């Protein structure tokens, strides 16, 4: 399985921005999906954004649409998540995940085989 490492978490005030980055240990296959998930205490892990390697099709959770942008650089084996206009409810541990197949925020976290260790994002009001 591919190894994933996230970076870029931190603490910001509401309205601020952060950029998360995920680097993979090997090049992705063209039918692979990369996703960012998040999980806050007491809540289930939820998909935030996904991007398909072939063509870069993206999907977003309604809660982050128009605020977050997922992007990829296949040559560098990275997938980034630009987070703008952050809100306190965005506070969570953010995880990078990878799998092969259908790529959508509607796909449960249980379907993903490869995970990063997570990075904490804290937004204060």
Structure characterization notes:
With 125 residues, the chain is mainly β. The protein has strands at residues 4-7, 10-13, 18-24, 32-39, 46-52, 58-60, 68-73, 78-83, 92-100, 114-115, 119-124. The strands form two sheets. Strands 2, 4, 5, 6, 9, 10 and 11 form a seven-stranded mixed β-sheet that branches. It has a four-stranded antiparallel β-sheet with strand order 1-3-8-7, with no helix packed on it. Strand 5 (46-52) and strand 6 form a beta hairpin.
Give me the Rg, rounded.
13 Å
What portion of residues belong to β-strands?
over 45%
Main sheet specs: 7 strands, mixed
Low-confidence stretches: none
Counting DSSP E segments of at least 2 residues, the number of strands comes to 11
Provide a count of the helices: 0
Based on secondary structure, the structural category is: mainly beta
- Determine the fraction of residues in helical runs and give it as a percent range: under 10%
Give the H and E element order.
Answer: EEEEEEEEEEE
Mean of pLDDT: 95
End-to-end distance, in Å? 39 Å
Shape: globular
Quickly list its features:
four-stranded antiparallel sheet; 125 residues; single chain; 0% helix; mainly beta
